[in-house]
Amino acid sequence: MLTNLIFNAVDAMPEGGTITLRSRREAAHVVLEVSDSGTGMTAEVLEHCVEPFFTTKGDAGTGLGLSMVFGVVSRHEGTVEIESEVGAGTTFRLQFSSLVPRIDAPVESVAPLTRSLNILVVDDQDASRNIIARYLTGDGHRVATATKRCAALPGNRRLRRGCPE
Fold it and tell me: Which residues are CB-neighbours of 36 under 8 A, at least 6 positions away?
């Protein structure tokens, strides 16, 4: 999550700027903030920025970073709050419960998968893409890889917007 938020902040500051990381405890929550002094987002971009495959970076981005951040936070029952102003920067505020439930019963081992999955890994970073593919293949899955979202989405016109035909 932090890697995606920091890389997005760097991309939003082509002339340089400041990235600020903050953490604090508020009542029964832990709050993590990533702020930048970059270009900020318009209301329209802000409305869609966590949707899968939405990107303002053209072929330079997959549009999966912020949707992944949102998904991870949601799976941990957290919330994402985004404040942004064009020309003044953006702040992502992630909030998680700090109350850890007590587990009295022993943890059971996870049952092995009974079937193999077909998985598509899309990442423009060779090292990341290859590591993920190796882990998934090692777990018995069939893995295909792509370096750009355009290569990963043949035939889906809505998701391919901005891709060369």
Answer: 9, 10, 12, 13, 17, 18, 19, 20, 89, 90, 91
